[in-house]
Amino acid sequence: MTQPPAWTRGDVAALLPDDTARAWFDEALADAARAAGTPPAAPSPYLAHTWELRFAAAGRHCGHRNADAVRALLLIEARAGLGTLTRLYGYGSAAERRAVLRALPALVEGPHAVHLVEDALRSNDTGLVLAAVGPYAAAHLDAHAWRHAVLKCLFTGVPLDAVARWTHRAAGDGELARMLRDYAAERTAAGRDVPDDLGRVLTLTGEVPKEL
Amino acid sequence: MRIFDPHIHMTSRTTDDYEAMRAAGVRAVVEPSFWLGQPRTRPASFFDYFDALLGWEPFRAAQYGIAHHCTLALNPKEANDPRCTPVLDALPRYLVKDGVVAVGEIGYDSMTPAEDAALAAQLQLAADHGLPALVHTPHRDKLAGLHRTVDVVNESSLPRERVLLDHLNETTVKDAKDSGCWLGFSVYPDTKMDEDRMVAILRAYGTEKVLVNSAADWGKSDPLKTRKVADAMITAGFGEDAVDQVLWRNPVAFYGLSGRLRLDVPQADGLHEGNSVLRGGE
Ligand SMILES: [Zn+2]
């Protein structure tokens, strides 16, 4: 089951700075809805639907703070499937990629889009890592990849609370506990601090964090 | 002192450079796409490079409180390789992006028919996308190259007030100024301009529509040249206002023509102080 989107059209319209932005938003949504009924003709592999160009330009037309929400609604309105999501992620700036990742739970049923999450987790951009560890990753990332995602968050300073359902997935995970202990030992051996979040996960794995 | 380096290839630079630039007063940079020293052989290599200029490099710059934008294009050297020219077809996908503040670097390298075609096509793309253009003038046969560049600009639908002619020097500055375009000077050890010659040009031609950059890249270059020019200007008796005009207000005005310049440095969402770049990566 996909999840309901985090924003409705009305929520987003209310956030927009002025009527110009709202008119742009309405036109972009209409454009995306039209595209949903028409598969793209492809004289060039690089040709984009106009709504896809608007998807890229959303930040400067609607305000950068609203761009994620606007982009998510465009994806929903266009009924973006796996091919479209993969294309927009592939051609996307970091901000566009974040928007695709955040929209996954509302758009993709099943694990077919997990390659996008894995791609983001290979990056070193903490904004992408943060967007990757949302509810879609909680539902579909396999155990090994999920443990590495948690470790990467600790390593790169992404707050643990950004990891969707981490308390649920970490509970009783002995292998995760081992990885965390080893990481803590490595930090301690180097005379460095152990992140506070590490102790929080370790507790849940069933291990009592000792003198980390 | 606030400094905007309007032409620097940070992809080739280390985090030490970012740190030193910040300490010297650099608060904003524009990174033009160019060639990487090693020729590319397929469009996908360009797309990965564009992705870096639109994602990874702004992320790195933000760690040091530096706003990072880019200009995208097929550069003149690689425009001569038919394996790379399909990049022109993909540019419309990239030129709409929020971090892109100009089309560039375009212009001439060896002045071939393929370069003519790529320059004209990309000036048109700039006009179509409401973007200004950063035009590199050739290092060899420079004055003839400048004249040919200005002719192509005049034939294009992009107004001259939206074109920056870069890598100018004593032999090209006068004709470039007469063209009505913006004037860019790269201050680079051994080649291009140096600080004292730059000051002499500013004395002779004024500070209006003049931009100074380090053009630092993978060659022997210095990302602090912008600051060194500012210091040389002060020593030569220019006031702080003239320094601010050349090293901040002029680049802000030129790239501001895109309507996309954001000088507040966006922080990556929801992060603590530390991150892997500062910690030395994985
Ligand atoms: Zn350059």
TrEMBL record, chain A:
InterPro entries: EboA_dom
Domain of life, per lineage: Bacteria
Protein name: Sugar phosphate isomerase
Originating species: Streptomyces phaeofaciens
Automatic annotation (TrEMBL), chain B:
Domain of life: Bacteria
Database matches in SUPFAM superfamilies: Metallo-dependent hydrolases
GO MF annotations, alphabetized: hydrolase activity, acting on ester bonds; metal ion binding
Keyword tags: Hydrolase, Metal-binding
Pfam family, one: TatD_DNase
Leader peptide range in chain numbering: none
Similarity comment: family membership: Belongs to the metallo-dependent hydrolases superfamily.
Protein's name in the database: TatD family hydrolase
Upper classification of the organism: Bacteria, Bacillati, Actinomycetota, Actinomycetes, Kitasatosporales
